[in-house]
Design a protein that fits this description.
Strand order of the largest sheet: 7-6-12-11-10-9-8
Number of strands: 13
CATH architecture of the largest domain: Alpha-Beta Barrel
Mean pLDDT: 94
Radius of gyration: 24 Å
Length: 295
């Protein structure tokens, strides 16, 4: 299920860019002239946030004739969205809708590449994207990675247990098994994940009873070493490779035996390139999703 973006959030995006109307369009006196706007991919991408872009345009008074679905794999030149309406509405929504789709599709495209590379080696591997979304952009970022076949690693601090070395600084004098027992008593329905930075630390926490080991910035060879040593112990602990996972090395980490790949890379992806074409018209164009003048 994709995150629901409320109308209030869409209105906030518009208020940031068009707080008091479009001075240029108003001054030119063209606001009531009918027109058509078409979005198309300039490059191969995984489309995302097309639904929100469409809703944004509708809230401004446009009619959306067609849109692709988030998660669609499209080639260069493929149509993404078509809308018509008065020039004032089209021009007010133009850049917000375009930028929204570009950033979300950039995230989705990189997440898809990681998923595809990893699952070509291990079809059961999970690609989980971190909580390191840009503040204020979590819902759209999560929608983009979900559309690409990835999953959220953590939605935030409130719903998961992940013990970092930074937590353990304050637990230096406590037995690790006792700490894990306390966590299980406090949150019996939760898995306990611990981040480690060395193979020795990983094995110690596995023996203490952790459910998932998050190997921070391990090389693929380092992940393979931990996986092999856990297998020799007969440990059921799952291994998550984290830190630096990206499309170019996802297959290497999958081959190393990681069960989960944890990545922030999609959130820092370059925006996808979306072309927008504006056309003035006398009558609404409804013969095809992109009108008779599509070319």
């Amino acid at each position: 299920m994709m995150p629901l973006i409320p109308d209030a959030e869409i209105d906030r995006w518009l208020a940031e860019d068009v707080p008091y109307g479009d001075l240029t369009t108003h001054s030119l006196g063209i606001g009531e002239r009918p027109g058509r706007m078409r979005f198309a991919a300039r490059e191969a991408m995984v489309a995302a946030a097309s639904e929100e872009a469409a809703r944004l345009l509708v809230r401004l008074g446009c009619t959306v004739d067609w849109r692709c679905a988030s998660g669609s794999l499209v080639e260069a030149g493929a149509p993404l969205l078509a809308a018509e309406g008065p020039a004032a509405a089209l021009l007010a929504g133009w850049k917000v809708a375009q930028t929204l789709m570009e950033y979300a599709s950039g995230i989705a495209t990189v997440a898809h590449r990681i998923v595809q590379a990893a699952r070509a080696v291990d079809p059961t591997i999970v690609v989980a994207c971190t909580r390191k979304t840009f503040p204020g952009a979590k819902a759209i970022s999560l929608k983009a990675i979900l559309a690409a076949g990835a999953t959220p690693h953590r939605l935030g601090l409130s719903e998961t247990i992940l013990v970092f070395p930074e937590h353990r600084v304050f637990l230096a004098d406590e037995d690790q098994a006792a700490v894990l027992q306390r966590l299980r008593a406090a949150c019996p329905e939760r898995k306990i994940v611990a981040e480690v930075k060395s193979p020795e630390e990983a094995l110690q926490l596995a023996q203490a009873g952790v459910d998932v080991l998050q190997l921070e910035k391990f090389s693929p060879a380092g992940v393979a070493e931990v996986v092999a040593r856990l297998a020799n112990m007969g440990s059921p602990v799952k291994v998550a490779a984290a830190g630096g996972v990206k499309p170019s090395n996802a297959a290497d980490y999958a081959r190393a035996g990681a069960h989960i790949l944890v990545s922030s890379a999609p959130y820092f992806a370059p925006p996808a390139d979306v072309k927008v074409t504006m056309t003035a018209c006398r009558d609404p164009l409804r013969s095809s999703p992109f009108g008779d003048d599509a070319g």
